[in-house]
Structures are given as structure tokens and as C-alpha cells.
């Protein structure tokens, strides 16, 4: 069977880590695409990763390019093209520049690989994935945004740190938009099947939830120049792997809702089944009143940013 082809649009901090993780998971041949001014950088990263393969015996190839023809017929695209936040910026401040980039990227992906599965990471996420969907005209099952996987992983990390239990056994999802209004569903979270609410006090849980909401900003402040990249890359690779290996993992992602959770026509973080057909299903469940109110708030925020795209 021929190897899958994975195109990474943007070869910066997240893009480089995506290339490394895709190689180590042997998901397929990787092409890192960036603008001509960064072609040397992505060619260099590709060559560097090529040279780590002998140790563990990975056979897939990694190349760097600034030519759209080189990503033709890719199975998966992961888009990080754009600029990241600097201290003091919120994700919405990136809209104008990143929207211009997304318009160009969407048109080219449509031309090169109209049947690919596309994972968007560029911020502001909920508006960027919407923009890609509108401009490309892709089927809704083939377009998804990475945010909930990361926000949930952050929450799970903080809960594991608090309880000194294995992070692997902490299960808890974050729904809604990728911003301060995100909606952690603590009520359904468990550690090895034991409800989280029975293990951590409500005051402490509130602090953990708040830290999760601003976890991206916490890292931006520490870095001083750029945003998180290891965990975002790992989260997107988990989604790509579920698609390429038809695992049907249930991952909170920004999927197009058409009535689910009373959201219509917007991409928002919901539990999504990712398999060989892309986002195959959204797993809807009954929200409690306070969760519904919180989801409405996050939807308002998403609608405002989407409106600014003018699409
Ligand atoms: P960075 O290291 O700056 O990489 C971005 C890359 O995009 C650079 O190499 C640019 O040259 C490249 N680029 C710019 N324009 C184009 C274009 N037209 N075509 C192809 N490539 C282009 O940033 P990063 O990797 O740290 O972050 C990338 C994006 O992800 C930013 O918008 C971040 O805000 C966003 N991000 C999202 C999350 C989510 O959870 C959704 C988390 C972290 C970062």
C-alpha cells in the first residue's frame, strides 16, 4: 500500500513539530510548505528530520518546499500558516493578517487536493476554520479545527498535577470556542472512572478551570515571543492519526454544527468522531442549564469573530 501524504502548510514552530511527530508515528510522507522567504528553513527542518530516521528506522520521507505543486494529492493538510500571538495580544488580534493568509491557502489546497482532510490550527481558530470551509467549499466532514483536543489536554494535565494521578487516566473534555469562554464539562470528568468532582474541591476546581482558560496566554507570557507549539502539534497529530488509521477516536474538535447543541452554521468545539470519512459524527448529549448558558456565551464570541471575517 502506498504511504499516505501529509502536507503541513506553515513550517514554523508547530509545523516543525508536526513533521517530527508524523515521522515518529509513521503516518506517511511529509511535505512542509512555507512561503518562499522561509523555504530554506523548511528544507533544513526536513533534512534534519530525515537524518534522525536511521536510529529508529522510520522509512517515510520529509521534504520542504514553497511550491504548491509539491503538495498535490495530499491526504491530509494541517494548516498553521499565519502569525502567532505575542504578549498582550489576544487571538482575535491575529484575524486580519491570518485571514488574508487563509484565503490564499484555501484556494491553493482546493486546487491541489480537493478531497483531502483538512485540520486548521491557525488563530483565531473558530474563525479560521470557518473561513477555510467557506472559501474552499469543502464538504463539512473534511474540515475541522484543532482546539478542544489541546484545551482538554491542558485541563487533564492540571487535574493530574493536582491529584497526583496518571494523566492517562484523567478524562475530561472542553467544549466551545478556543478562547476565554471555552466550556470545560467538569461534571462528566473522571479519573479512572471516579468522578473528578468527588476528588477535588469546587473552589480548587474553579482555579484549575481558570488556569485552563488562560493556559495559552500563560505560555505566551513565558515565551515572550510566540505561542505554545509542542502540545498543539501533538493534539493535531492525534486527529490526523485517527483519520488516516480510521480509529474513530472521540476528540473535542471545532466541527461544523448544524443543529447539534442548538448551534447552527458555526464551527465550535464538540465531541467529534474522526475516522476514514473525516468528522463522521458529532456526539450530542444533554447539557445542564449552566453548561447551556456557557455554550451560548462562547457561541456569541465565535459569532462575533466570524462576523469580522466578512464571509
Ligand atoms: P510560527 O512559528 O510563526 O509559524 C507560522 C509559519 O507560517 C511561519 O513559518 C510562516 O512563514 C508561515 N506562513 C506565513 N504565511 C504563510 C503562507 N501564506 N503560506 C504558508 N506558510 C505561511 O507560528 P506557530 O507555528 O507557533 O503558530 C502557528 C499558528 O497556530 C498561529 O496562528 C498560532 O496562533 C496558532 N496556534 C493555535 C493554537 C490552537 O490551539 C488553535 C495553539 C497554538 C498556536
At a glance:
This protein is of the alpha/beta class and 311 residues long. 42% of the residues lie in helices and 20% in strands.
Number of strands: 14
**Ends: how far apart?**
40 Å
State the CATH architecture of the largest domain.
Alpha-Beta Complex
Ligand types? 3-acetylpyridine adenine dinucleotide
What's the helical proportion of residues? Answer: 40-55%
Morphology call: globular
Order of helices and strands: EHEHHEEHEHEHEEEEEHHHEEEH
Note the total helix count: 10
Mean pLDDT: 97
**What is the domain total for the residues?**
2
Largest sheet: 6 strands, parallel
CATH superfamily of the largest domain: Lactate dehydrogenase/glycoside hydrolase, family 4, C-terminal
Q: Which percent band covers the strand fraction?
A: 15-25%
Give the C-level CATH assignment of the largest domain: Alpha Beta
User: Which parts are unreliable, with pLDDT below 50 for 5 consecutive residues or more?
Assistant: none
What is the SS-derived class? alpha/beta
Task: Fill in the CATH topology of the largest domain.
Answer: L-2-Hydroxyisocaproate Dehydrogenase, Chain A, domain 2
Q: Looking across the biggest beta sheet, what order are the strands in? A: 3-2-1-4-5-6
Radius of gyration: 19 Å
